[in-house]
Amino acid sequence: MIEQLHQVASIIASARNLVAFTGSGISAESGIPTFRDPGGLWDRYDPDKLGSDGVATLGKITEEGRAFFREMVDTLERARPNPGHLALAELERMGILSSVITQNIDNLHWEAGNTTVIEVHGNLYRLRCLTCGRTFKLKKGEDLPAMVQRLAEINEQDSLELAQLMPKCRCGGMTRFDVVHFGEPVQDFPQAEHAAQTCGVMLAVGTSGVVTPAALLPGYAKGAGAKVIEINATGSYFPQIADFSIVEKAGEALPRIVAAVREILG
Ligand code: NAD
User: 163 lies in which domain range?
Assistant: First the structure.
């Protein structure tokens, strides 16, 4: 294990261009359940149902949709970057990591300090105007809790459409969360593909590789000649592609790798 970590650190230390590709596992240690965690958000709510009933669209919010929204906001508002996110930000500051491609919508890579984050599934802290297309950021600690508060104030019997809850754009247009729902096209995929195909090393962290097209990115990196290093708490999900598979929590493995890279670089 220690031997493998040092091999990985020396590959990263001499990387021409390191790109990280992250999934919900990197945020698990920040208290956000992964997609398939038993008992987690996604296990208790049917995302497909919510997608068509209101959270995804601007239609009527069901009782289940309200409960899901409250719990999701509560979870995201409490979450802070963990040592795994912070290690990736440190690799960027060291001039090694050029970008993070993430499937997460939780904003934590930005909060950790990374400055090039390609969010293929969007960001829940961003709204998009349906009229002019402008996007704008929401303030953590303010905007989403205010929406939850407004939901609570409305009589449960009232029919509430999500459109009534969403802030209006300055052009007067209606807005929606700038996240990718089931069946919608991913965001910024050409940039993600380019980053994958031009990197020297890809670090695939905390992803089970089942959600496509994002899951294709490690294969694109490998096909273009990059080394692929996988970090996952429960096993290897890219056995045909990964040159190294570190089976460990991201928040433990990544800081140790960064410390070893520092040592190698002196
Ligand atoms: P996934 O749930 O399919 O896989 C998560 C993987 O992370 C699992 O293989 C698991 O073994 C691993 N893991 C769990 N804890 C870990 C840890 N501490 N360190 C390292 N690995 C750990 O998630 P996915 O592959 O990202 O796909 C699910 C989809 O759900 C994504 O598209 C994402 O958009 C969405 N999602 C996002 C969030 C978020 O924004 N934080 C949370 C849940 C789901």
Answer: 33-77+124-179
